[in-house]
């Protein structure tokens, strides 16, 4: 069984309860139980002046005797520990719980954080002028979806501008989202800049003053953030510099976010442009993710309080070989199993250039892949959730309801897909995953 | 970055993966019987037995000829080079004796530690020269896995960045070479328990070391599904005044592993370090009961923690053979249960098993 509250798998209810009582005192609730790794179990932080300094990552489990006499904890001096504690137990608990809520079973992320420039491209496709008002109206279509999306969407990523916009009725978008129990995130990077001496590769900027911006976003309602790095595959790429530089900047961003109680969504996107095959993409993805997690370790990032937003492993757009969803799934899950530590709470795939249906079918196959997957595997889709809605809208007020319906439909499909329950009319028959040793 | 140059064919990968899975099949672990000549000397001295080749052969013979139910709890045995070419009393080569029981044969291939200049007594491990040819020969002689031990220690300045990077790199080179020759590499980055550091410090250091190990394995294109990890459990230093429960040891250990060891690694076989037989079993059991998701097998690769009582029972006398085997089989069964989280200590462990097996700055 998988306990819904603490997301821990146990063979039986009995075993679950038995283990829970073994490791915790009786007053423990499920939320804290699930954060036992690194969390001081049970209580608020000890009273001021008592053992706060240096009580860090993992402290011994607090017993009843400790709560009666907190000075016992003071003796737990950690003068021998070289680590300089980055986060308190309470901070870790908050981050972990937030991450778990975003990727609760059946839920994923709506990436509605297109920058002004990106929105220009989207709106141009449906003949709509790229004004602030039009962008507001478009986001309103998504955010006014009814309660059906509450069980499909765990978090929405906002662009800075949208965070401060309101609906027609004057309700702030942030409030509309939060009031339905959906978490608010914000894109915090400032776009890509070239890496001189490389073949068109980039890093991502936005670290300056990031700490202060995060503090402000937290006050304004955001509990998670997103930062996108971009890599590409070609004969010479990605270069060692591009991999290390982007991994490093992602780790710096993560570290800063966590200081402010903001869960960092880590996005090292490898573009699907090119004619490379599935194997090449898998190989590159493994190298990139290994570098990302080494950087996370070096920067002392608390993995349980992060989410990963990677590309699925797919062939390049101009690759002549076609691959089944099961092959995409095997390659993707294999790459993740070799690089993403089990402590990472969830993996929410980007859709890249995939169509809405393709993205859902792939996500579904990934969740049905027979290899053991220790993280939640869900979606963080932009275009793959919005394309039909955008087309239905075309900027006309009278199409708003229809557009919202399109969005809800995609959200529901992806909710099924992230549980491996999306049986589309196409090919319900055999799902042949093949031998894992070929990957 | 260029196209990958496949290091292994799908058939080679399948072979390695299958071997690894067999070694860490549910309820099974590894008997580390690879003590070097010098180390065996220390063991035998404790029971006043002379350290000659015959005595070493004799003791291993007793262990290896234990009743075949041993193969329900032991999936692999690590040999020392000398032992690989010795025979049982009945004239059969030891690797064959082990294989006939359905247990996988492994071989220690490193050549001990060497000093890292400019550090505070830190080391790397040597043995890469000609390793490929040696692995090919060992494979012919019946081995399917290998072991290589690196050593790190905790103190004010240690482990240093150099020690971590150098040992991670040498482990990755060794692993890469083994896989080319059809041997599953057991990767052992041991962090010694010497010192007065607490549990947190050990956890922190273990996380840093393992992160470096897996980055190196990725850089060297090692096929993780065809490897095993042999780490220390996360414990407080031996001179730490604070005592921690098995549950705390379990949590710290599993947390550290979840943050660093990819799910594709099939099994983690803990070394026992200086722990007594009973301690090692109780801790392994607690590790297997930790209420966090553990995607790899968590089992044992014990030397002293499987053999201490047996050695004490033997005393070098042939008449004690059956008693020795009974004691050994008992420990193996207990650890087999602990590897499934099903060990229930009766509360009356005998003295030999509770005795601490710690010796300062343990060296093979």
Automatic annotation (TrEMBL), chain A:
Q: In which pathway does it act?
A: Carbohydrate degradation; glycolysis; D-glyceraldehyde 3-phosphate and glycerone phosphate from D-glucose: step 4/4
Q: Name one GO biological process term.
A: glycolytic process
Q: Does the keyword Lyase apply?
A: yes
The molecular function GO annotations come to: fructose-bisphosphate aldolase activity
Catalytic reaction equation(s): beta-D-fructose 1,6-bisphosphate = D-glyceraldehyde 3-phosphate + dihydroxyacetone phosphate
The family this protein is said to belong to: Belongs to the class I fructose-bisphosphate aldolase family.
EC number(s) from the headed UniProt entry: 4.1.2.13
Pfam families assigned to the protein according to its UniProt record, in alphabetical order:
Glycolytic
Which segments does the entry list as coiled coil?
A: none
Q: Which domain of life is it from?
A: Eukaryota
> Which keywords does UniProt give here?
Glycolysis, Lyase, Schiff base
Can you say what this protein is called?
A: Fructose-bisphosphate aldolase
From TrEMBL, chain B:
Q: Known InterPro entries for this protein? A: Aldolase_I_AS, Aldolase_TIM, FBA_I
Q: Which SUPFAM superfamilies match?
A: Aldolase
Task: Mark the transmembrane ranges.
Answer: none
In which pathway does this enzyme or protein participate?
A: Carbohydrate degradation; glycolysis; D-glyceraldehyde 3-phosphate and glycerone phosphate from D-glucose: step 4/4
Record flagged with keyword Lyase? yes
Q: Name one GO molecular function term.
A: fructose-bisphosphate aldolase activity
- Top EC category: lyase
Q: What family does the database annotate? A: Belongs to the class I fructose-bisphosphate aldolase family.
The family database entries (PANTHER family) matched by this protein are listed as:
FRUCTOSE-BISPHOSPHATE ALDOLASE
The protein, known as: Fructose-bisphosphate aldolase
Mind giving the lineage of the organism this protein is from? Eukaryota, Metazoa, Chordata, Craniata, Vertebrata
């Amino acid at each position: 069984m998988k306990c819904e509250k603490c997301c821990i798998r146990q063979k039986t209810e009995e075993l679950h309860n038995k283990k829970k009582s073994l490791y915790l005192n009786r007053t423990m609730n499920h939320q804290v139980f699930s954060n036992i790794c690194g969390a001081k179990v049970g209580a608020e932080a000890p009273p001021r002046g008592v053992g706060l300094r240096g009580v860090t990552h993992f402290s011994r489990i607090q017993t009843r005797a400790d709560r009666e006499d907190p000075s016992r904890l003071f003796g737990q001096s950690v003068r021998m520990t070289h680590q300089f504690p980055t986060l308190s137990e309470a901070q870790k608990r908050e981050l972990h719980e937030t991450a778990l809520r975003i990727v609760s079973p059946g839920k994923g992320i709506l990436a509605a954080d297109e920058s002004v420039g990106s929105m220009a491209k989207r709106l141009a496709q449906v003949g709509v002028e790229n004004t602030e008002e039009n962008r507001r109206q478009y986001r309103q279509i998504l955010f006014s979806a009814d309660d059906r999306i509450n069980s499909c969407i765990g978090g929405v990523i906002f662009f800075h501008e949208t965070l401060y916009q309101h609906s027609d009725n004057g309700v702030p978008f942030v409030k509309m989202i939060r009031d339905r129990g959906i978490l608010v995130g914000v894109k915090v990077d400032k776009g890509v800049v070239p890496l001189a001496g490389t073949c068109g590769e980039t890093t991502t900027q936005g670290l300056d003053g990031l700490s202060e911006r995060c503090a402000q976003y937290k006050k304004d309602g955001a509990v998670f953030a997103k930062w996108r790095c971009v890599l590409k595959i070609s004969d010479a790429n990605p270069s060692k510099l591009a991999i290390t530089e982007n991994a490093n900047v992602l780790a710096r961003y993560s570290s800063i976010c966590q200081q402010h109680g903001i869960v960092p969504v880590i996005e090292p996107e490898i573009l699907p442009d090119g004619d490379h095959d599935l194997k090449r993409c898998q190989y590159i993805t493994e190298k990139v993710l290994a570098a990302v997690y080494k950087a996370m370790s070096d920067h002392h990032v608390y993995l349980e309080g992060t989410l990963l937003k990677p590309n699925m492993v797919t062939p390049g757009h101009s690759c002549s070989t076609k691959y089944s969803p099961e092959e995409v799934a095997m390659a993707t899950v294999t790459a993740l199993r070799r690089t993403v530590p089990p402590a990472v709470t969830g993996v929410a795939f980007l859709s890249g250039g995939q169509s809405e249906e393709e993205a859902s079918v792939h996500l579904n196959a990934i969740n049905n892949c027979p290899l053991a997957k220790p993280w939640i595997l869900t979606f963080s889709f932009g275009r793959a959730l919005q394309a039909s809605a955008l087309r239905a809208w075309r900027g006309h007020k009278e199409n708003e309801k229809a557009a919202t319906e399109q969005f809800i439909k995609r959200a529901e499909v992806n909710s099924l897909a992230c549980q491996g329950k999306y049986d589309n009319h196409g090919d319900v028959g055999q799902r042949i995953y093949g031998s894992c040793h070929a990957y | 970055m260029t196209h990958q140059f496949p290091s292994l064919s799908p058939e080679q990968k399948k072979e390695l993966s299958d071997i690894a899975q067999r070694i860490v099949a549910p309820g099974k672990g590894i008997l580390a019987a690879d003590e070097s000549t010098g180390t065996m000397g220390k063991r035998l001295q404790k029971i006043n037995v002379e350290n000659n080749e015959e005595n070493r052969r004799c003791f291993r013979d007793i262990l290896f000829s234990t009743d075949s139910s041993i193969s329900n709890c032991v999936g692999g045995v690590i040999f020392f080079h000398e032992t690989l070419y010795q025979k049982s009393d009945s004239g059969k080569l030891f690797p064959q004796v082990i294989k006939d029981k359905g247990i996988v044969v492994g071989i220690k291939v490193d050549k001990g530690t060497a000093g890292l200049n400019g550090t505070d007594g830190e080391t790397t491990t040597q043995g890469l020269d000609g390793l490929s040819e040696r692995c090919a020969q060992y494979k012919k002689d019946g081995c399917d896995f290998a072991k290589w031990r690196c050593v790190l220690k905790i103190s004010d300045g240690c482990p240093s960045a150099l020690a971590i990077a150098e040992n991670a790199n040498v482990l990755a080179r060794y692993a890469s070479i083994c896989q080319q020759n059809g041997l599953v590499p057991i990767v052992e980055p041991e962090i010694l328990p010497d010192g007065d550091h607490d549990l947190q410090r050990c956890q922190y250091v273990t996380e840093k070391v393992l992160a470096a190990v897996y980055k190196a394995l990725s850089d060297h294109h090692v096929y993780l599904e065809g490897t095993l990890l042999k780490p220390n459990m996360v414990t407080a230093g031996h001179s730490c005044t604070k005592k921690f429960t098995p549950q705390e040891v379990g949590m710290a250990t599993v947390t550290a592993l979840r943050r660093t060891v990819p799910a594709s690694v099939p099994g983690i076989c803990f070394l026992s370090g200086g722990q007594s037989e009973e301690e090692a079993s109780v801790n392994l059991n607690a590790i297997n009961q930790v209420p966090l998701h553990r995607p790899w097998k968590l089992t044992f690769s014990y030397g002293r923690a499987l053999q201490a009582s047996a050695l004490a029972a033997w005393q070098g006398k042939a008449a004690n053979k059956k008693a020795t085997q009974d004691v050994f089989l008992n420990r193996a069964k207990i650890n087999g249960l602990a590897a499934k989280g099903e060990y229930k200590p009766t509360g009356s462990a005998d003295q030999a098993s509770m005795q601490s097996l710690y010796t300062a700055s343990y060296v093979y």
